[in-house]
Amino acid sequence: MRPDRGPDPATEATVERAPAVGREAAGELERLLELSVRLSSGLELGPILDATLAAAAAIGGTAMGGLCLLDDDGPGPGTSLGFEDDLLARLGGVAQLCLQRGAPVVVADTDLDPLAHEAHEAALGRFRALHAVPVRGPSGRLLGVLTLYFHQPGRLSDRAGELLQRCAAIAGGPIENALQHRRTLRELAERRAGEAARGAEAERLSLGLTAAGVCAWEWHTETGDVIWSHSIYEMLGLQPGDPTPNAEQWYDLLHPDDVAEVRRVADLCVRTGTSFYVEYRVRRIDGTYRWIAARGDIVHSAVPGPPRFVGALHDITARRCAEAALRDGEERQRKLADNLPSGFIYQVIEQPDATRRFTYVSRGIEAITGKTPADIMANPVGLEAWVLAEDLPLVVRSEAAAFRVGEHFECQFRIHGRDGVRWLHCRSAPRRLSDGTNAWDGIALDVTERVQAEEALRASEARYRTLFNSIDEGFCVIEVLFDGDHAVDYRFLEVNPAFEKHTGLRDAAGKTMRELAPDHDAHWFKVYGEVARTGRATRFVNEARALGQRWFDVYAFKLGEGDRVAILFTDISARLSAEAERERLVEELRDADRKKDDFIALLAHELRNPLAPLRTGLQVMRLAGGNVDVVARTRAMMDRQLSHMVRLIDDLMDVSRISRNKLELRRERVLLADVIGSAVETARPQIEAANHDLQVSLPAGPVFLDADLTRLAQVFSNLLTNSAKYTAPGGRIRLDARRLGGEIVVTVRDNGIGIPAYALSSIFDMFSQIDRTLERTAGGLGLGLALVKGLVEMHGGSVTAASEGEGRGSVFTVRLPVLADRAHADEADAGAVPSGPACRVLVVDDNQDGAGAMAMMLEMLGHEVRTAHDGVEAIEAAEDFRPHVILMDVGMPRLNGLDATRRIREQAWGKDIAIVALTGWGQEADRARSKAAGCDCHLVKPVNLEDLERLLEQYAGGRAHKPV
């Protein structure tokens, strides 16, 4: 089995297909309905087989198949599709297995499926899968096998398999009828041949009689002897010289069923002396029987004596066989008519006086109407008695027109059937009889299911049209235009309302794509041309630049015959843009997560840096004993390291607050010179430690800003310390400020190691740590620049970074809005805070070392101090000690600081005590909780000594507390 012409196996779609839905399902039903109608009206076997196989191949989506029927002694007639050699010369192994089982047989892969080996099915590379179903007639007789072949391995879907079996079932009846018709024609031909042979025999007998070559005989009744002509040898198959039979021996050669009748006729003739004629069977020497017609007559003689008979024997075997065949054929025709599926055959005789009557109706009428043929023929109006009143005028008009012109009659109407209203389609044609009457031979088919299917199809078409017009996706039907084998354009045959929304093309129906978009990409024509040429559906995503750079998700499939292609598509440009944006955001999140991990590791490293000298300093102080100089230098070192740790944590908290919009600026009218001066003072220790040359240049006149002096000074101190870190000892740092219109532009320039080009875009990002030295000698969390950017933007300004490359220094530029100059500056408050009187302080902290250290420091400042280490102990100590100020830790065992504060406030003695929350939690939500619990102030550990002294001075001497 070689494929005639078909798709390349490498590109053939798999056999498995989803069940057809929508219009495709309606198309399959319409195809089966059309097949049923076509087959029901024909008796020619070839067209029936071809139509059946074509419908089956369309259902299976293949171009290869075979339909082979069985004969009495092996494979019979059949047809094939898509093969050069004769598939019907034999039944394949799977077909034989299908016949044995009487059920469908599926081989999903001829190379792997065990069923293929069991059936000895040899694909020889020409196909990889097949699906065979048996074909049965209405009588249940197995007629043959319908087999579909596929290039690719796989299976038909359940829906397609069911439709294939329905196709075989529909074809079973017409095939059986056609086979019966074929046998009848063959038998009629044999009968005609027999009659021709009989005519030839008669002619030969005539010649034989003329030449005395007939089998003549003479019977002597007294002796029983029979004289035969020479033809008896041929009649009985005797050899010349063999003895011929006498009368009794002749009776022994007769068929047992015929002996009695022949003796009776012979005895009657002897008694009455009359002639006779009888037909009977005689056995030849080989044991076979021949039909003989014996005619004899008595010989009248003037000489008295026993009577003699003479006569002749004629071999009428052919005639009797032809007659039997004719009777058998007529019986089969009657059976065929009586068992016509979904219909019946009838005959109406039209008399010369224009009267009409039914003279024959096959028994199929009973299954449709419940009436017998006799009921129809006995009714004066025949079948019209059961026609619906609404359709009767149509039937009468159609009959009258047909009888008037003597042409064929055809009409479709409704009748009252056995199970309700049924639809009949009647067709008949006139035939002139010898007596001058017209016989109208016709067939009536029950087309109820077809009519219902057509109505369902119309409803389906209406639903399709509604769906076509209402779906939001674009849909169109095109005709692909070819130049030779190349698709060069396509014409829009039909478009739905959403088409214009997705493509931007207006009034496209009837126009070609080249007319609407001359620059349309060639690959679109190629794809649709391939679908039209191969019939393989395709789905793809591609860009149509000529339609405004739109991206489309497209599903295209062949529609019917010809070069029509249906296209369902959606403009996914926005979706792809959103997906790209989502990918960008995901990548940013990944990068942020990666930076966060790096930052946490770096944070741990940086926090350990000051902790190590702090621990070492404690050990030195224990070992120093009374060495005051060592203790002083150690304490100074520890203070520096603690300040460094506090700055790290403050920077971290500030960046967090800025990212969550929780940082509040305390804006006021400030001088730029004050901001820069504060920043330089903060950064000076690090600059001097590295022996850098710092130059500062400010505008000649005063420049006022609406800013938080502390936060803005933090911006420039961070920039200066950043330059100090990443500039080799002895480097140059320059801060220049100049006024440009309503802005002040401040640049911090250094000749340090510079910034890599790849890092410039992310250097201000949170968690972005640019390690610009292999050994990381500069240290730091990398939060300084993120804090700079956040604070500058909160002041309504901007900051940028630039570098000519590694080793060539860096430049940071800050732009800030300037306030209008005023005649005089606010006088600065001067003078140190005078030390105030001592007060009673209760220190509450579950960390005993922390509480003890705080108590020692307060006692050294001259205050009276007590300590407590949980909330319950704090309440008891407060009631006994009656402090002016309570420094209350928040997270403690037994009773936390906030609950302890609430209980103290419930006491009459506790209403005037100043309670300060002293904790490591410094978020806005933490401050709100402490305030709600009754705390007057919220300080974050570690607290600055000057802030603590101011706080204690405010509440010294038992003054009424108020929030700070």
Automatic annotation (TrEMBL):
PAC domain segment(s): 276-328
EC number(s) per entry: 2.7.13.3
A family per Pfam: PAS_3
Positions bearing 4-aspartylphosphate: D889
Domain of life per record: Bacteria
Domain (PAS): residue spans on this chain: 228-273
Chaperone keyword on record: no
Name of this chain's protein: histidine kinase
Gene3D superfamilies, sorted: 1.10.287.130, 3.30.450.40, 3.40.50.2300, Histidine kinase-like ATPase, C-terminal domain, PAS domain
PROSITE patterns: HIS_KIN, PAC, PAS, RESPONSE_REGULATORY
Residue span, Response regulatory domain: 840-956
SUPFAM superfamilies documented for this protein: ATPase domain of HSP90 chaperone/DNA topoisomerase II/histidine kinase, CheY-like, GAF domain-like, Homodimeric domain of signal transducing histidine kinase, PYP-like sensor domain (PAS domain)
Keywords in alphabetical order: Kinase, Phosphoprotein, Transferase
Catalytic activity: ATP + protein L-histidine = ADP + protein N-phospho-L-histidine
